[in-house]
Amino acid sequence: FVYEPTPGLYEDIAMFDFTSMHTSIIITHNLSKGTLLEKKEKDAIESPELELKGEKQKFYFSKKLGFFPEMLKEIFNKRKKFKEEYKKDPNVITKARSNAFKVLSASVHGYIGFFGARYYSIEASASILAFVRKYNIDTINKIKKLGYPVIYGDTDSIAFLTHGKKESEIKLLLKKLNSELPGLLELELEDFFKRGI
């Protein structure tokens, strides 16, 4: 999903970014080939409606923790740990560790969507993307509803005008939005920008 940018020169911009969005969605909603259900069951996790092979449909996933999301959670936690380690002690080794787990974590959705992969599942892959669109669009709408004009958004980030609000107010907005997200999903402040095109 890409939010159509509104062309122009803007001042007082803030940008939020979803942390490891695809990975967080896989773990939070237990999406994988192994957790995919043949039909809807009681208490199943339901994907947002999506279009696959020209048909609108939904897929259902078991709440019973699957091997793949559980394994990914370990990678996710190591990524977090080594990212913090790098912040405290930036050097080539800590940077390499942090980047290694970042790449591993980021590649998982592509792996699930690759037809040659052992854990390939077009249904899980499509559901991941449906959740990405849902959370991005929902967050854009919440930001707009609170009076901040959104000027740009792509897969996992949203840029909006702060209208001269203090940084502390924007951080409170971030905290509010995060309190409404499920599981591991989290927005972080990318940065504040004085102006941008």
Structure commentary:
This protein has 197 residues and is of the alpha+beta class. The chain is 45% helix and 20% strand. Helix 1 crosses helix 2, helix 1 crosses helix 4 (122-145) and helix 2 (67-88) packs antiparallel against helix 3. The chain is globular, with a radius of gyration of 18 Å.
Unreliably modeled segments: none
Helix content, binned percent? 40-55%
Major beta-sheet overview: 4 strands, antiparallel
Q: For the residues shown, what is the average pLDDT?
A: 94
Q: How many angstroms does the end-to-end distance come to?
A: 21 Å
The number of helical elements comes to 5
Rg on CA atoms, Å: 18 Å
Strand order of the largest sheet: 6-7-1-8
3D shape: globular
Structure summary, number of beta strands: 8
Features:
4-stranded antiparallel beta sheet; single chain; alpha+beta; two-stranded antiparallel ribbon; 5 helices; 197 residues; globular
Summary, kept brief:
It contains five helices and eight strands; from the N terminus they run E-H-E-E-E-E-H-H-H-E-E-H-E. With 197 residues, it is an alpha+beta fold.
Question: How do the strands and helices of this protein lay out in sequence?
Answer:
Blueprint: E1 10-18, H1 21-29, E2 45-46, E3 50-52, E4 55-57, E5 60-61, H2 67-88, H3 92-112, H4 122-145, E6 150-154, E7 157-161, H5 167-179, E8 187-196
Antiparallel strand pairs: 1-7, 1-8, 2-5, 3-4, 6-7
